[in-house]
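I have been asked to look over a protein record a colleague put together. This is what I was given:
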Amino acid sequence: MRIALALGSGGARGYTHIGVLDELRARGHEVVAVSGTSMGAVVGGLEAAGKLDEYTAWVSTLRQTDVWRLLDPAFTGPGVFWGQRVMERVADILDGARIEELPIPFTAVATDLTNSREVWFQRGSVATAMRASIGIPSVFTPVVVGGRLLADGGLLNPVPVDALLGVDADRTVAVSLSGRRAEDTSNRPVTESADSEGLLGEIGTLWRRGVLESETVSTFRSWWAERFARGEDQPELEASRDFDFGELPKGLRTSDVVSRSLETAEALITRFRMAASPPDVLIEFPQDIASTFDFHRAGELIARGREKASEALDAAGL
């Protein structure tokens, strides 16, 4: 069966896309067009170029320390990481591939921050399109392509099904990484995997340095500290009777709030976009299947992808 495939954004959870593709191939289906956003653009572009197996072999060997070595801190840039080091490795695998020359039609989606609109890459360098699409705000720096400031495509189109409209295919399959979390964790301690905690903590630290320790905020805090030292304007420490707040989850960090805020917005946008352009088959993964930064868990996540794809395709009679 001829399949048009839309692959969604979600950081390391995007490794599940590889498992979905494995299952489609195992069932004898042919992917005739692929669109992708963020990590979906990376996996989709590699599949369209016929290079996904080489990429999979590489990421399956990565340990947490290897992931750290691939990160390039952007101490003076508008993000925590430049993202060049890891994309150079992907570019080596692609070997100069251009979108218009790929054996499978491919579309990568990015967000134009200057004009507040989405951008579809359907020509030009595959590596450039991928890098533009993965610019997670505050994590990877945005890039400038053709005079436009581009960031993560998931800001406006997390699962780009509409990029496949008009494709000559028997079925359209979409893979979303923005599904509801497996359980309500609102009143539970906030925890991440031990391996990813360091990276999340570092992002939170860098954010605090850039915001909480900025000149304006630091001056403001010093001003208040001096007033408190003199006994002026002491804050009221007792809980106000006018508010009925519960306690914040234990262990909640700045990086957790940023990450979950982006996930919440992405999930809502995904639902609206899916309603406008519904796929024939939706394969959905919960947001807490892995941290956005668990890039050392390829083997496990690929296996989860294939398992979930098998269930969804069986249910759809494919």
